[in-house]
């Protein structure tokens, strides 16, 4: 990722504006053991308390890295019950990177965040409808299948 993704201007801007990056070599102890880094590149996204919320392993091109990091930030917001912030981060991902590998999970998490912020089960059903329309073969469409029964 050093040659392709990290030098990309969009990636640099995203990380600079929204994250605090820390690079740890895979053999740097005790951090590599503490965060179970067994292959590179491994990206671990932590909240301000050091709790892991998202992990990617393997190369991601810039057009996949930014959405993966957006999803990671949304997961931190979701865990903190900051559902409106999670929705804003997921909307960013879905508006800019609708064909990314992170998009189906973003639709799912957006539906759950909308439900948790409104208590309207229709939000879950909408997420399922969008998943089956736009990402029918995704694991997230399968995971959301029970929402169709609402």
TrEMBL record:
Matches recorded under InterPro entries: Thioredoxin-like_sf, TPR-like_helical_dom_sf
Name the record gives this protein: Uncharacterized protein
Gene3D superfamilies attached to this UniProt entry: Tetratricopeptide repeat domain
Superkingdom of origin organism: Bacteria
Organism, scientific name: Geobacter pickeringii
SUPFAM superfamilies in the cross-refs: Thioredoxin-like
């Amino acid at each position: 990722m050093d040659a392709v993704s990290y030098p990309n201007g969009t990636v640099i801007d995203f990380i600079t504006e929204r994250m605090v990056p820390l690079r740890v070599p895979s053999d740097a102890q005790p951090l590599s053991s503490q965060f179970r880094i067994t292959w590179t590149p491994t990206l671990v996204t932590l909240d301000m308390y050091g709790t892991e919320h998202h992990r990617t392993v393997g190369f991601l091109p810039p057009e996949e890295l930014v959405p993966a990091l957006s999803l990671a930030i949304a997961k931190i917001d979701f865990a903190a019950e900051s559902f409106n912030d999670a929705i804003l981060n997921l909307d960013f991902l879905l508006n800019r990177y609708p064909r990314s590998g992170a998009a189906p999970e973003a639709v799912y998490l957006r539906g759950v965040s909308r439900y948790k912020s409104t208590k309207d089960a229709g939000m879950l059903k909408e997420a399922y409808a969008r998943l089956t329309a736009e990402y029918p073969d995704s694991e997230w469409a399968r995971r959301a299948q029970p929402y169709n029964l609402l």
